[in-house]
Amino acid sequence: MNIVISGLGIIGGSFAKSLKKYTDHYIIGINRSPAPLEQALSCGAIDEIGNEASLQKADMIILGTFPEAAVSFVEKNASLIPKGCIVIDSAGIKTEICPALNSLAHKHGFEFVGVHPMAGKEKNGFAASDADLFCNASCIIIPGKAGTQAVETVARLAEKIGFGCIVYSNPEEHDRMIAFTSQLPHVIACAYVMSPVCKKHKGFSAGSYRDVSRVAHINEKLWAELFIENKQPLIEEIDIMTENLGKIKAAIESGDRSGLEALLARSRNIKEELGE
User: What integer is the mean pLDDT of 82-106?
Assistant: First the structure.
């Protein structure tokens, strides 16, 4: 296939590199700034630097941009996308963007399949992209209104570039689960490192500090957009976290050792039940 990738950050760049490593597809890169395109071409991650006109020869388009930018890009260029072309996004939220892209797909005759690669790093940009970023990771697919053949094509491609697990979902379930598994940990990490003692942690910290603080190295523009666009599920998870912290705090404050042990044992039991 001719595959156009719009946005060569860590995710779009990793799609490009993995596709060149594990498949024979022809990869065309589009990016707002030229530097990532030149880097991608020089390292062989793409076969060609393209522009919006390149969409006319695409069999598949991968949107590697922020959610709002992905919708805007398709709205602006929908008339250039060939009928039957498969368009996939890579955004971390779906309820806000899938309806818009499904509507555009229906209007213009292309196929839209929602995709969320559950992989990443603390770093951002093309320099952080990796041909093996997706190896053994989970790929969430939101079929929406796409045809069976288009969905199967996306799933087969995901498996070829290393994804170890394909999970099918809908926008609402996806966003509810991602609020817990991805967004809340980022909220916690950011709140954690705001402690005034954080800057003095060296010499006093080990694995626990690294585990909790790792994702505080955050792209604030992207995650602010993701948090706000998934507002209600995320607020619900923050409320649950706040309630649980309150219970632990109350037990510590009152010196309720048995109550505190029961709370800690409950969390341990949950992890053990999950086999983790």
Answer: 97
